[in-house]
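Example S7 (C-alpha cells).
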C-alpha cells in the first residue's frame, strides 16, 4: 500500500485568504470512479441571502445593506448569486437569468432540471430517462459541460455524480426560484464555476399559514405525492416538505446490451446482444425542513436539513440486473448580524452522500470444443461510495459610502471520501478500495462601485486559491453595467476561472466497464480559462424585454476524456484523462419575452455555440482524434419557444413549450464519439381551478410523438408521449 500525503502553509493577506488543499490517499492505484466534490454550504448566508432576509423596502440601486422589517416579503426581481449581495436584476452588472416559482409551476416542471430548459445559453440533457429516476440531468452553460458548472442549493455545492449533476434530486415544490449566473465565476466561487453558477433557492416561512398537497399519476404507472407546510409565528418560522414518487419507468424496446465476448467469431449480432426489459423502475423520497429564529431586527439564526432517498434498477431479458441506491443528507446552521453600515454572517454545513450499486452480469463465450456451443460465466459486482463534507464560511459587507459596497469572504472546507468495489465470479474475487481527505481554505474580495447617479456600475473582484500540486491560482474578474437610457442597458465582463482535477480523475484504478476500461492519470494539471461576455438589454414599455449577448472562452490545459491508441487491456480500449492544450468556445444568445395581452405571454430563446479544439498537446496518440476539432458538449443551434395563458376570472390556463437542438457529435460511453440526431422536444400543461383551494391539471411531454436516436444505434432515447394528471390543494 502506498500512502500520499500533501501538506501546505497558508496565509492571510489583508482580508483575502489563500486557499490550500491537503490530500491524503490510500492505495492511489486502487481508486474509485466516483467524483470527489467539496460542499460549500452558504444557504442564504446573509450575502447569499434568501429573500426572506430582505426587507419590504425596495433594495436600493446601490444595493446597500438591506433592512429586515418584514422577512416574508419576496422581492421577485432581487438576485443574490451574481455578486453575492442582494441586487435588483436591472441593476446587476453580471448576466443572470431567473426562473421563479410561478414559471416553474406553469411549466409543470417536476424538478430543478426541467425548470431551466427554456433559458438562453443553457443546454439541458436528460439521459435516456423518463421521470426523476436515472443517472441525472446534465446542465451546460455557454458550451461548458456540467462538471464545469457549479450547482448550489441554498449556497451548498451539489455533488457531481456519473454523467450529470443530480438536479433531479430537488423537487419543484420546494423551489422558490433558480438564479443562473452566466460566465466565469471563480472570482467568487473558486473551482468548477468556469461556465457559471446555477443557484437553487428554496421556499421560506411566511406570515400566512401555508398548507399544500399535490397528488399525481400517469404514464409508466407513475404515482407521486407532495406535502408542503410553511408558517411564521412571532420570531420563529419554519418550512416542511415531503415528496415521494415511484414509477416503473421507461426503456426503449430496441435498447440492448452486449453479452458476448467481443472476439467471439461466427456469432450473429442477434446472439451477441440481448434486449433490456422495457421497465426502468425507480422510487424517490425527499424530506426538507428549515427553521428560522429572529430574536431581533439585527440578529437572525437558521437551521435547515435535506434528506433524499433514491432507488433505481433495470434488467435485461437474460439474467442481468442493476441496482443503484442513493442517500443524501445535508445539514446547515448559521446566523448573521447587521447594522446600517455592515453585515456579518457565519454558517456551518455538513453534507453526507452514500451510494451503493450492485449488478449481476452474464457473459457468453464461444466454446472451442463444442458442444455446448457457448460457455456462460456470471459475476456479482458492486461498489460503495461514502462522502462526508464539512464547511464553515464567514462573509461580511461594508457600506463604505453611498457609491461603494465592499464584500469579503473566507471559507474552510474539509471533505472525506471512501470507496470500495468488488467483483466475484466463480472462484475469483477482486476488490478495490480508495480513501481520501481534503482540506481547503479560501477567500475572496469584491468591491461594487455605483457611479454617475447609478448610471455606471463597476465590480472588480478576485479570489486566491493555493494548491500544493499546482501552485497559486488567482482568479480576477471585472464586470460593468452601463445604463445608456432608462430602457437600454449594456453589461460586459471579463475574468479568469479554473477547474482543478479531482482525485478520482488522477488516481482512479483500472476499472472495467462494458466494452472498455477506465483509469486515472496522476500527471493531470489544472484547467484554466480566460473568458469575456457582453450583453445588451432592451425594454419596450412594460410588456416587452429583449436581450442579446456574445460570449467567448479560451481554455488552456483543458481536462478531457481520451482513449489512447497505445493503451489496451485484454483486447479492449482503455479510457483515461489528459490535458488538451487549448480549446475555444464562442457563441451568441438571445431571448425575448412579451406580454401579448393580459392573459397571454410569449417567450423565445436561441443560442448559437461553436466549440473548437485549437491544439492538442497530449502525450498519447488519441483514437478517433482526426477530424474531431470540436469538444462535443452542445449542439451548434439550440432554440425554444413558450406560450403561456392564464385567465384568472375563468380559473383556466395552460403552457405550451417546444425546443429544437441541431444534430451534433459528442463523446459518450467509453470515450467514443457518437452522432446524435437533431432533437425536437415538446411539453404542455393545462389547468382548471376548482373553487378557491383546488386545481386539476394535466401535463404532457413529447406531444409531437418525436423519436430521437442519441447514439445512432437503432434505439429511441426519448420517451414517447407521456401524460400525467395532478390534483393540487392549497389552504
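Recovered sequence:
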Amino acid at each position: 500500500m502506498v500512502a500520499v500525503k500533501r501538506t501546505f502553509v497558508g496565509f492571510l493577506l489583508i482580508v483575502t485568504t489563500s486557499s490550500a488543499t491537503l490530500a491524503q490517499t490510500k492505495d492511489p492505484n486502487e481508486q474509485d470512479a466516483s467524483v470527489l466534490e467539496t460542499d460549500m454550504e452558504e444557504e442564504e448566508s446573509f450575502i447569499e441571502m434568501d429573500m426572506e432576509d430582505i426587507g419590504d423596502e425596495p433594495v436600493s440601486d446601490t444595493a446597500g445593506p438591506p433592512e429586515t422589517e418584514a422577512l416574508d416579503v419576496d422581492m421577485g426581481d432581487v438576485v443574490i448569486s451574481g455578486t453575492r449581495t442582494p441586487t435588483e436584476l436591472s441593476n446587476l452588472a453580471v448576466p443572470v437569468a431567473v426562473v421563479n416559482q410561478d414559471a416553474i409551476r406553469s411549466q409543470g416542471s417536476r424538478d430543478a432540471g426541467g425548470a431551466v430548459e427554456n433559458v438562453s445559453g443553457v443546454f439541458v440533457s436528460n439521459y435516456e430517462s423518463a421521470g426523476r429516476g436515472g443517472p441525472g440531468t446534465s446542465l451546460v452553460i455557454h458550451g461548458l459541460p456540467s462538471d464545469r458548472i457549479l450547482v448550489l442549493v441554498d449556497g451548498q455545492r451539489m455533488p457531481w455524480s456519473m454523467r450529470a449533476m443530480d438536479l433531479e434530486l430537488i423537487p419543484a415544490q420546494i423551489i422558490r426560484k433558480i438564479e443562473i449566473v452566466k460566465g466565469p465565476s471563480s472570482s467568487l466561487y473558486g473551482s468548477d464555476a468556469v461556465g457559471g453558477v446555477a443557484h437553487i433557492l428554496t421556499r421560506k416561512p411566511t406570515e400566512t399559514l401555508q398548507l399544500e398537497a399535490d397528488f399525481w399519476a400517469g404514464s409508466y404507472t407513475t404515482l407521486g405525492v407532495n406535502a408542503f407546510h410553511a408558517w411564521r409565528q412571532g420570531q420563529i418560522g419554519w418550512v416542511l416538505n415531503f415528496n415521494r414518487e415511484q414509477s416503473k419507468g421507461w426503456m426503449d424496446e430496441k435498447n440492448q446490451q452486449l453479452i458476448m465476448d467481443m472476439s467471439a467469431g461466427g456469432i450473429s449480432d442477434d446472439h451477441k446482444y440481448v434486449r433490456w426489459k422495457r421497465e426502468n423502475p425507480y422510487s424517490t423520497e425527499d424530506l426538507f425542513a428549515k427553521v428560522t429564529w429572529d430574536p431581533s431586527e439585527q440578529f437572525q439564526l437558521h437551521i435547515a436539513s435535506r434528506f433524499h432517498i433514491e432507488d433505481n434498477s433495470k434488467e435485461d431479458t437474460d439474467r442481468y440486473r442493476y441496482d443503484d441506491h442513493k442517500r443524501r443528507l445535508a445539514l446547515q446552521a448559521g446566523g448573521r448580524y447587521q447594522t446600517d453600515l455592515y453585515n456579518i454572517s457565519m454558517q456551518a454545513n455538513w453534507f453526507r452522500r452514500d451510494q451503493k450499486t450492485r449488478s449481476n452480469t452474464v457473459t457468453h463465450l464461444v466454446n472451442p470444443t463444442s458442444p455446448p456451443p457457448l460457455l456462460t460465466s456470471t459475476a456479482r459486482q458492486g461498489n460503495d461510495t461514502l462522502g462526508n463534507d464539512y464547511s464553515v464560511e464567514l462573509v461580511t459587507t461594508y457600506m463604505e459610502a453611498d457609491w461603494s459596497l465592499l464584500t469579503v469572504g473566507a471559507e474552510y472546507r474539509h471533505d472525506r471520501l471512501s470507496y470500495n468495489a468488488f467483483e466475484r465470479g466463480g472462484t475469483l474475487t477482486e476488490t478495490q478500495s480508495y480513501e481520501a481527505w481534503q482540506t481547503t481554505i479560501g477567500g475572496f474580495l469584491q468591491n461594487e462601485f455605483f457611479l454617475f447617479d447609478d448610471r455606471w456600475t463597476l465590480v472588480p473582484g478576485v479570489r486566491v486559491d493555493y494548491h500544493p500540486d499546482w501552485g497559486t491560482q488567482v482568479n480576477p474578474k471585472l464586470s460593468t453595467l452601463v445604463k445608456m437610457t432608462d430602457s437600454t442597458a449594456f453589461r460586459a465582463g471579463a475574468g479568469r476561472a479554473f477547474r482543478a482535477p479531482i482525485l478520482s480523475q488522477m488516481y482512479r484504478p483500472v476499472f472495467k466497464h462494458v466494452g472498455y476500461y477506465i483509469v486515472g492519470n496522476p500527471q493531470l494539471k489544472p484547467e484554466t480559462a480566460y473568458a469575456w461576455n457582453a450583453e445588451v438589454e432592451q425594454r419596450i414599455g412594460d410588456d416587452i424585454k429583449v436581450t442579446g449577448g456574445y460570449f467567448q472562452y479560451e481554455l488552456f490545459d483543458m481536462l478531457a476524456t481520451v482513449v489512447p491508441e497505445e493503451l489496451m487491456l485484454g483486447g479492449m480500449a482503455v479510457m483515461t484523462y489528459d490535458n488538451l492544450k487549448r480549446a475555444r468556445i464562442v457563441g451568441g444568445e438571445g431571448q425575448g419575452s412579451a406580454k401579448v395581452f393580459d392573459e397571454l405571454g410569449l417567450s423565445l430563446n436561441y443560442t448559437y455555440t461553436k466549440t473548437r479544439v485549437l491544439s492538442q498537446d497530449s502525450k498519447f496518440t488519441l483514437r478517433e482524434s482526426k477530424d474531431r476539432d470540436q469538444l462535443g458538449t452542445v449542439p451548434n443551434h439550440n432554440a425554444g419557444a413558450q406560450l403561456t395563458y392564464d385567465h384568472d376570472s375563468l380559473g383556466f390556463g395552460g403552457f405550451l413549450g417546444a425546443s429544437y437542438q441541431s444534430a451534433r457529435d459528442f463523446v459518450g460511453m467509453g470515450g467514443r464519439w457518437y452522432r446524435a440526431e437533431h432533437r425536437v422536444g415538446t411539453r404542455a400543461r393545462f389547468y382548471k381551478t376548482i373553487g378557491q383551494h383546488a386545481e386539476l391539471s394535466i401535463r404532457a411531454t413529447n406531444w409531437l410523438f418525436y423519436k430521437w436516436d442519441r447514439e445512432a444505434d437503432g434505439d429511441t432515447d426519448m420517451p414517447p408521449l407521456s401524460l400525467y394528471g395532478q390534483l393540487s390543494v392549497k389552504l
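Notes on this example. Residues 685 and 718 are 19 Å apart (CA to CA).
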